Amino acid sequence: MTAPTTLNVRVVRKAVEAEDICSLELAAVDGGPLPAFSAGSHVDVQLPGGLTRQYSLCNDPAETHRYLLGVLKDAASRGGSRAVHEQVQEGSLLQISPPKNHFALAHDAQRHLLLAGGIGVTPILCMAERLARTGAAFEMHYATRSKARTAFAGRIAASSFADRVHFHFDDGDAAQKLDIPALLGTPRAGEHVYVCGPKGFMDAVLGAARAAGWPETQLHYEFFGAEVGPSAGDGAFEVVLSSSGRVIPVAADQTVVQALDAAGVLVPTSCEQGVCGTCLTRVLEGECDHKDMYLTPEEQAAHDQFLPCCSRAKSPRLVLDL
């Protein structure tokens, strides 16, 4: 049987979890079980206004009767989080994708270090639930601006793994703040690091880990938003469709996706920020100018794939597997 491409769900509960953060509990409209998911998974949610946004699942993966999402009302929202907070209500019907996972646990790891910044706690909390259930060794650090902005604090306090979670507040005293370089100063064999949160937080964690010599294979991360804008060095280039040889010019102020769309070539997109990987496209020839937050540095260096929603070309031409 072919798996459904969309799921019809109802918002059975909407709750305030912290300042500017709400949760949505979703259940299947027909009352049946939802597709299973693994820790770190997200779903694409179709929102009012024709928007599609990705939100991580933050309930225990053992549950099949619901999906739980946590959504920050972002001051810089492009409309998605604002729609969730202002238009989606209990009883609302939504269409979502089946769960996808680009941020999976490494189950062969000897120990897990979970680092959450702000709303990045959603996939990290799901991971903690799973690791606790399987008896794995882990430690979790949760950094937020203040206690008032700390979502799911009560749930964590009541959990079986509460003693393995360390809270860090930006407005608290210096002694309790997260010392990222100290935490990651020495790579540890068999230990894997997972991080999700605002870009500045993730850059700090990944930068400290890489500077300390942590192998890339032990670093796992998921960006949920990025600021992708024009750069001073952006220039015009061409893309070639390998199937037909057709050459499509890309202007300096155009994305590849925009240029392809104008030429009648549709590439599936979702976030349009280089985060979700929906538009990932194989590159057969040429050098890419990567601007995404999805590929690892090693994957970017290979220049054999890129995200045309944001990335460009360093060479005059890219040959795409389209």
TrEMBL record:
Cofactors (names): FMN
CDD domains listed in its UniProt record: fer2, PDR_like
GO MF annotations, alphabetized: 2 iron, 2 sulfur cluster binding; metal ion binding; oxidoreductase activity
Keywords assigned by UniProt, alphabetized: 2Fe-2S, Flavoprotein, FMN, Iron, Iron-sulfur, Metal-binding, Oxidoreductase
Superkingdom of the source species: Bacteria
Pfam families: DmmA-like_N (PF22290), Fer2 (PF00111)
Name listed for the protein in its UniProt record: Oxidoreductase
